[in-house]
Design a protein that fits this description.
With about 350 residues, this protein is an alpha+beta fold. It folds into two domains: about 200 residues, no CATH class; about 120 residues, no CATH class. Helix content is about 40%, strand content about 15%. The strands form six sheets. It has a three-stranded mixed sheet, with no helix packed on it. A two-stranded antiparallel ribbon has the order 1-9. A hairpin with a 6-residue loop joins strand 2 and strand 3. The longest helix is centred in the middle third of the chain and has 20 residues.
């Protein structure tokens, strides 16, 4: 199999990141997740526990943009709200900074401060779940980026401050704290966190796996070249949620009049899917037809070690020079292992 899907992780990973669920809502009226804040203490803005007499370097402030009242969000008119960082959360976020120090390209991509914020939030997910942060992240740039993309929003939504920013929720109390770390994170939210973290583990496992074949949604294969599956890096398949999600990304649904792709019928349509190579050829040719098919076949000939034949195909400027070229979807039949197996070179095609 020689047809491959695009492999640029900078293009795939961000778009593939699943949206985080809505912020957690502690059980209404339940007091187990919050207790009165001791005198002189501040709540940790991350895990929620009381931080006794925090120093200035341990505190920070946030300013809400709204406040929830009777089911409505009204403009916030109060002062900034102060929070602290407990020792455990501080240490965890310093570890995130240590990992980022080993990945200047990640800092450049997200911005140093934003990268620190995002990876710290991802590490917070591990803290909520009580699992270890994946080992040797400082030597694994792609897994670091994957954690940022998969876990940032969920981590931010798990923090104590999520009850205060951007909107002060109806159950938030400035004179309260969590009785133990992350007690405010409810069971439903924890299930969402576990699902997100499992996607990270799936990505880490995929890093040690070979490319995967992603079959065409149509058993007949690509409607132009006939190939039945494309190769895709296992990490990309993991990011896209498995083979089905990868197929949606890799294969493009198309419809054409048979005569435009080498058939004789002038009416009716041929429906199917194009592989990434043929779809790229369509884009380069500017139309879905013989010219695109010639480009795709020429690329296949280059990969097959037949540059002279590929050169002659590319030099063809008149459509009748490719009159013998017929799309796989016109004749039907099963998908092929290699592209263009249904075409016999010669008769004006070589």
């Amino acid at each position: 199999m020689t047809s491959t899907a695009p492999t640029d992780p900078e293009q795939t990973t961000p778009d593939a990141a699943p949206p985080a669920p809505a912020a957690p809502v502690p059980a209404a009226g339940g007091g187990a997740w919050k207790i009165p804040l001791p005198d002189g203490a501040m709540p940790c803005g991350f895990c929620g526990v009381a931080v006794p007499s925090p120093g200035r370097e341990e505190t920070y402030s946030v300013i809400p943009i709204g406040t929830e009242r009777h089911g409505q969000v009204l403009p916030y008119r109060g002062d900034s709200l102060d929070f602290a960082a407990c020792g455990s959360c501080t240490a965890r976020h310093r570890e995130a900074a240590r990992v980022l120090a080993a990945h200047p390209s990640v800092r450049a991509r997200f911005g140093t401060d934003n990268a620190q914020h995002r990876l710290s939030a991802a590490f917070d997910v591990c803290a909520v779940l009580g699992v270890r942060v994946p080992a040797r992240l400082e030597k694994n740039r792609d897994l670091t980026v994957n954690m940022i993309m998969m876990l940032t929003e969920a981590g931010v939504g798990s923090r104590w401050t999520s009850m205060f920013v951007p909107v002060v929720t109806g159950w938030a109390g400035t004179a309260q704290c969590a009785p133990e770390p992350w007690a405010h994170v409810d069971a439903e939210w924890r299930r969402e966190l576990r699902a997100a973290f499992l996607r990270v583990l799936a990505f880490r496992f995929a890093q040690s796996q070979p490319d995967q074949e992603v079959p065409c949604p149509d058993p007949g294969g690509c409607m132009l070249c006939g190939v039945g599956a494309v190769a895709m890096p296992a990490t990309r398949v993991a990011v896209l949620g498995g083979v089905d999600g990868a197929a949606t990304f890799a294969w493009t649904a198309r419809s054409a009049v048979p005569s435009s792709i080498g058939g004789k019928a002038l009416r009716g349509r041929v429906d199917g899917y194009t592989c990434p190579t043929c779809e790229r050829a369509v884009t380069e040719a500017g139309s879905f037809g013989i010219a695109a098919m010639g480009r795709s076949l020429a690329e296949h000939l280059d990969r097959a070690g037949k540059p002279e034949q590929a050169k002659r195909l590319r030099s063809a400027v008149r459509l009748d020079e490719l009159a013998g070229l017929v799309a796989h979807g016109v004749g039907g039949g099963p998908a092929s292992r290699e592209p263009w197996e249904h075409v016999r070179l010669g008769d004006g095609l070589s």
